[in-house]
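Appendix B, Record 12. Input sequence as logged:
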Amino acid sequence: MTALFALVTSVLWGLADFGGGLLTRRLPALTVVVVSQSAAASVLGAVVVATGAWSEAGPRLWFAFAAGLIGPIALLSFYKALALGPMGVVSPLATLSVAVPVGVALALGERPGLLQAAGIAVAVAGVVLAGGPQLRGAPVQQRAILLTLVAALGFGTVFALVAEASTTVTGLFLALLVQRVTNVAAGGAALYAAVRRGAPALPRDGFPWRSLPALAFVGLADVAANGTYAIAAQHGPVTVAAVLASLYPVVTALAARGLLSERLRAVQAAGAGLALLGTVLLATG
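Logged structural output:
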């Protein structure tokens, strides 16, 4: 169950990142964050009311609140790093996020078996290569590296916090709602501050209403990924769940290949193969 839900997480996160990346070509990143997360919060609010999840309120919701504060910071840092580029450096470096939940799990006493340890190493190497690392001939600004490291730390921390935010399915709905409402509040405050400084919140021709379904999809895929990751982490080793969930860059690269006809570089194809091999080792270990 851990492997299955973690792999579903990687697919959902990969598609959400792909959709978010396309949308930020037409809309400011902060607007994408606020609108997409508002859509997710609306759906989660209805689910919480329908399931009576309010009864699950407790101290663990502070983990969800913290994840909601950190998530937008990580996402915006990542978008800004991608804008500074080159993407071939930023994308693979962001996969260091997996070190946070894996490190926490190891500190708490988890010890993967030999086969699983090999799978972790192979899968992480595959994810880095799937990002198309640009090791030579690429001028990299120090600010881009710093922002990417901030994003990786933030993403990894959200991984760890979401896994601790609930112990039941209904409690998970409530925790995800708290996280999303906090996302919207934090992102909305940042958007307001940006507008006050003169940054545009919308394109010159106004809000692209045709993009609303895509924005909703990004938000819902992201929140669903958080949910499936929490389930994966609760039902098995966090080290396995975190590594398999971190395969989302492979999904993003394959989506770009299938939907945008972007050609995979040889190093990316090799990375995808290694990631698949690592997945098999983890699942069988």
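The mean pLDDT is 82.
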